[in-house]
Specification:
This protein is of the alpha/beta class. It is 37% helix and 20% strand. The chain starts with a strand and ends with a helix.
Length: 478
């Protein structure tokens, strides 16, 4: 790349992380974005910046570009990428660039990549993998979709010997060369169908995690399990909540057991896994599988799982008021993720809504209807959830909240926080002692909030402002 022009499409976290390595390679870096502030941040790194509209207005701008490095969220048909593809310019994602730089040894010997993907549980599993690597004394980092760009992890000193890499379907789509030492597909449910053009495209993208030496699949998920037969990996391993067969990890009695990398080895008690419940156990089995794949000892796997701490906004109790528990699972950004939380509690005042991204909620509502005391919905696609509850649980009260202009992405913190305060007050009014007020949106957050973390903090702040009388008086009224 020395002396050649590389266009970085997208000047946010992942895009800006590509700039220093491209400079180290001697490339001439040009960064484009639709936001002038983002372009200015790129220029502060000592590279040229150009607004997307200005780039597209001058087709000759593409004449000297040898490569486009795209942010993962940009679709194939986005204007800049379509223009580049029309001229035959190669397009890589930031993960593809990271992989090639790592294989080339730019910052040190090639690193072992342990890749985690799936519709739900990616962040928890990746964090568990990182905890196990730390217990093993391996210089490592959790990176990728979890927050830290892979390129930033590769540039660390000392150089990492292994990486726990969370990858989204977008990142995998733009990274066809990645061949991890071990990769896992946890599960596959409807999500990002609008981006991938349907379920088939989404599944194909996820299957990119299974192209390395060891492929691991969740056997209790039909779609994930179906990928095992087509994986080109040297070895395919499965995990399940039930008793494992040879070549699998699973649960025997009260223990997580490895029958894939040992004849029959107990790893850890179910009671020692956090977060508790089936979803947490499945994530732990997946983390154990990919780390056992690189030879980490059973006792070390157990130590890493015990020391793992659950991250925020993942089924976290934020407060109990007058016998009502308020739980933040803002990370449940699709129906499949929300299901795990909804099935964990007996009687729920459900707070839901946001961007469904093409996913359907009818099956979820049918399954959880007996647990619902009320449903409070908000956001752009909140009415779809409200209508599903009305169809399948007509006796469940539904209250719909509006931002005032749900047709547009607001991202106005003050407006979103005001709506959340009203939602939580209404939830408290409808709850009774022993109930759980559960924020499990089943949808993405970007129609109202900066991100799912902002949504979770807004919920927690609103719950913290409640008094006992908000619940007690409300319960009497309802």
């Amino acid at each position: 790349m020395r002396g050649r022009t590389v266009l970085v499409a997208g000047a946010r976290v992942s895009g800006l992380a590509t700039v220093p390595p491209l400079q180290d390679l001697g490339a001439h870096v040009l960064v484009t974005d639709s936001d002038a502030g983002a372009v200015a941040k790129a220029e502060a790194l000592g590279v040229r910046g150009i607004l997307q509209d200005d780039l597209l207005a001058n087709p000759a701008s593409f004449d000297d570009i040898a490569l486009v490095v795209t942010s993962p969220g940009l679709r194939v048909d986005s204007p800049v990428l379509a223009a580049a593809a029309g001229r035959g310019i190669p397009i890589w994602g930031d993960i593809e660039l990271s992989w090639r730089i790592d294989r080339a040894g730019l910052y040190g010997p090639p690193t072992q990549w342990l890749v985690v993907t799936g519709t739900n549980g990616k962040t928890t599993t990746t964090s568990m993998v990182a905890s196990i690597l730390e217990s093993a004394g391996i210089e490592s980092a959790a990176c990728g979709n979890i927050g830290l760009p892979v390129l930033d992890a590769l540039r660390r000193d000392p150089h990492p010997g292994a990486l726990a890499v969370e990858l989204s379907s977008f990142q995998l789509f733009w990274a066809p060369s990645v061949r991890p030492e071990a990769g896992v597909v946890l599960n596959i449910a409807e999500d990002h169908l609008d981006w991938h053009g349907g379920m088939d495209g989404y599944v194909r993208a996820k299957a990119g995690a299974l192209t390395g030496r060891v492929a691991v699949v969740g056997l209790d998920d039909a779609r994930a399990a179906s990928l095992a037969s087509d994986s080109p990996a040297e070895r395919v391993v499965g995990f399940r909540l039930g008793e494992p067969s040879v070549g699998e990890l699973g649960v025997v009695g009260s223990d997580l057991v490895d029958r894939a990398f040992a004849e029959h080895t107990s790893l850890i008690s179910v009671d020692d896994v956090h977060p508790a419940g089936p979803a947490g156990v499945m994530d732990a089995l997946a983390a154990a599988a990919v780390t056992r794949a690189i030879g980490i000892a059973p006792d070390t796997v157990a130590d890493g799982l015990r020391s793992y701490q659950v991250g925020p906004h993942r089924n976290a109790v934020v407060r109990t008021v007058a016998g009502v528990t308020f739980v933040d699972d803002s990370k449940a950004t699709n129906p499949h993720a929300a299901r795990s939380s909804l099935l964990a509690y007996d009687r729920i005042v459900w707070i839901a809504g946001g961007l469904l991204k093409g996913a359907a909620v009818d099956e979820l509502v049918v399954e959880v209807a007996p647990r619902l005391a009320a449903a409070l919905v908000m956001g752009r696609d909140g009415t779809q959830i409200a209508e599903a509850v009305a169809r399948h649980a007509p006796d469940v009260p539904v209250v719909t909240f509006s931002t005032g202009d749900d047709a547009d992405v607001t991202r106005v913190a003050e407006d979103a926080d005001v709506v959340m305060q009203a939602v939580v007050r209404e939830a408290a009014r409808r709850a009774e002692p022993g109930d759980t007020v559960l924020l499990a949106p089943a949808a993405a957050s970007l129609d109202m909030f900066v991100d799912y973390g902002h949504r979770g903090r807004s919920f927690a702040d609103a719950a913290s402002a409640l008094t006992d009388s908000d619940v007690v008086d409300g319960g009497e009224q309802s």
